[in-house]
């Protein structure tokens, strides 16, 4: 469903936010100069998506100029390796969580992916960072603009500190919109991005700026109304299954 005016969108968005959490519909939005759909009130607070996992980062600060630095992230809902300047590694993944998720990487897709990467590459092989943004229901109206600037800033920081790192941008649900915004609206140089991995992306089927399709992995679970193009954007249980795709996502990151 696409709206032809901002008024129609706002009417729906207002209604969507008032709906019960377990049947929240995503809001719609206008952006990029034309009518565009966007993730709505994604992860319901009554679901596993909203855990209270605490950050367990134990990263130590280093000059960050050498390769082989250690990641500070091991588990939990917050990853801050770039902020904590944990050094340079072969791979760097910046991840944006979905609506209402805790910490800066949430629980549905972020932690399973990060744990898989550490399992595959070792803690010294990968730098892991979450996007610091509200991930609020109302933020869906902005189509990722709430987090795009932070993601682009984190990318710029790590690329200037560690120019040889292979940078992946990743996001889940509203977080996928954040990736779109970072690449398409924040001046981030797409040629410096090694891969993009999106889970439950409301913009599934559209390009991510000038990132080549060979470097883009869109994972849309069967029956996930948010990304499957049905146009109704109801949160179904399929939208909460992306922990199952951690190995697939990690393999794509490691091969790009
Ligand atoms: C998308 O998912 C919804 C909810 O599970 C389902 O009803 C619909 O048939 C799916 N549409 C497509 C095109 O797969
Ligand atoms: C160990 C350490 O320095 N952790 C910090 C990493 O960065 C986050 C966000 O700035 C801080 O909250 C942690 O204390």
Structural commentary:
With 256 residues, the protein is of the alpha/beta class. It contains five helices and seven strands, in the order αβββαβαβαββα. The chain has one domain (6-254): Rossmann fold (3-Layer(aba) Sandwich), CATH 3.40.50.1820. The strands form two sheets. It has a five-stranded parallel sheet with strand order 4-3-5-6-7, sandwiched between helices. A two-stranded antiparallel ribbon has the order 1-2. It binds 2-acetamido-2-deoxy-beta-D-glucopyranose (2 copies). One 2-acetamido-2-deoxy-beta-D-glucopyranose binds at residues 57, 59, 72, 80, 83-84.
Distance between the termini: 34 Å
Mean pLDDT score, rounded? 79
What is the name of the CATH superfamily?
Answer: Alpha/Beta hydrolase fold, catalytic domain
Q: Helix- and strand-based class?
A: alpha/beta
Nearest-angstrom radius of gyration? 17 Å
Shape, principal axes of CA atoms: globular
Query: What is the H-and-E element order?
Result: HEEEHEHEHEEH
Which fold does the CATH topology refer to? Rossmann fold
Indicate the low-confidence ranges by residue numbers. 1-67
Any idea how many domains? 1
Number of helices: 5
CATH A-level architecture: 3-Layer(aba) Sandwich
What is the fold's blueprint, element by element?
Layout (H helix, E strand, L loop, with lengths): L5 H12 L10 E4 L2 E4 L53 E6 L13 H12 L4 E5 L14 H17 L4 E7 L1 H12 L9 E5 L16 E4 L26 H9 L2
The protein binds 2-acetamido-2-deoxy-beta-D-glucopyranose (2 copies).
The site of one 2-acetamido-2-deoxy-beta-D-glucopyranose has 7 residues, from loops.
